[in-house]
């Protein structure tokens, strides 16, 4: 039997460099599973374009004249936008990575990422899975260290299982199926391990897990 064609993932590119936008558009145009709906030169334009075109994923640069990426991510989160934001930038310093993740970015990649790594990251982001390049994950480790009081609590065996699956980019639904529990139970475990690690989201939890030797 013929396989059903994969769902097309729609995206917009937000970057102040025309050459970068052209290069990304050309790269995605060569892959039939992706469709670039539009391009924006700054965060403000990107937010309005995302509201108008409703893409699955927003590829977001961070440092742009006229409106930076973190402010744009914050505004998209505030508006409850459906689109997942994947940061694609040349910067991996602590002052860049953590604010972007805290603002609501689903993932963070550097522009020197290979094409297939970028494609994989966009697919994962479209599904709501956390995506962190190794370089960025190592940068986040020190930045997300929780207060000592929070760090004294030990994760349960099941919470460790859930965290390990989150680190692999597994969705709540996939975790539930793999562990034979409900999605509601998965969310409860996540809430508990976030509290114990002193973090607010999946990306920070993964970074904290590596930092404390819980993962890897």
Written account of the structure:
The chain has 216 residues and is an alpha/beta fold. 53% of the residues lie in helices and 13% in strands. It has helices spanning 18-29, 43-53, 69-79, 94-103, 115-126, 134-143, 148-151, 157-167, 172-179, 183-197, 202-211; strands at 9-14, 34-40, 57-60, 84-89, 107-110, 131-132. The protein is globular and about 50 Å long. It starts with 8 loop residues before the first strand and ends in a 5-residue tail after the last helix. Residues 145-152 have low confidence and may be disordered.
Output the radius of gyration: 18 Å
Structural class: alpha/beta
Mean pLDDT: 85
Shape verdict: globular
Give the SSE order as H and E letters. Answer: EHEHEHEHEHEHHHHHH
Tally of DSSP helical segments? 11
What is the makeup of the main sheet?
6 strands, parallel
Q: How big a fraction of the residues is strand? A: 5-15%
Q: How many beta-strand runs?
A: 6
Low-confidence stretches: 145-152
